[in-house]
């Protein structure tokens, strides 16, 4: 299997963390790719031209990080990160969706800031910042859900918080969510997080 990714993408990082937590880094090759260059190899793997994209040995591909994570959780040996039972499954997937939403808003904010200043939309930037703040507030209120055995909700939360620190340190989320910040401080030390950290 081959995973197309960027070292700065939080969605790709989520997948890469899961692979390492599965103990399967030697089963999935990781290939750096730039979506800004619009490469043909990525289009063949994902017609939407987005990362991450996972390509099987027979050429079959999976795209969209939740789908890739679910596939790998079943296909790879090792611990399971998406529970089978409905109650626990929906709890984990709800947390996963919240973390992905924070990533969506954060990445949108990043791209908007890359535009020339005269073309930036303060209205959209404000909406994305507020979405991030509300998401962080929910994570802070429900931080105990991150305790216990690691699951995909925790993996996604770590990828989201890592991206905020990487691209949006000025939002100062840690001072507004001290319990979550304490969880993140410990979680970020896991080898899977250290190995997938974006470039300094």
From TrEMBL:
<protein>
    <submittedName>
        <fullName>Glutathione S-transferase domain</fullName>
    </submittedName>
</protein>
<dbReference type="GO" id="GO:0016740">
    <property type="term" value="F:transferase activity"/>
</dbReference>
<dbReference type="Pfam" id="PF13417">
    <property type="entry name" value="GST_N_3"/>
</dbReference>
<dbReference type="InterPro" id="IPR004045">
    <property type="entry name" value="Glutathione_S-Trfase_N"/>
</dbReference>
<dbReference type="InterPro" id="IPR050983">
    <property type="entry name" value="GST_Omega/HSP26"/>
</dbReference>
<feature type="domain" description="GST N-terminal">
    <location>
        <begin position="1"/>
        <end position="80"/>
    </location>
</feature>
<dbReference type="GO" id="GO:0005737">
    <property type="term" value="C:cytoplasm"/>
</dbReference>
<keyword id="KW-0808">Transferase</keyword>
<dbReference type="InterPro" id="IPR036249">
    <property type="entry name" value="Thioredoxin-like_sf"/>
</dbReference>
<dbReference type="InterPro" id="IPR036282">
    <property type="entry name" value="Glutathione-S-Trfase_C_sf"/>
</dbReference>
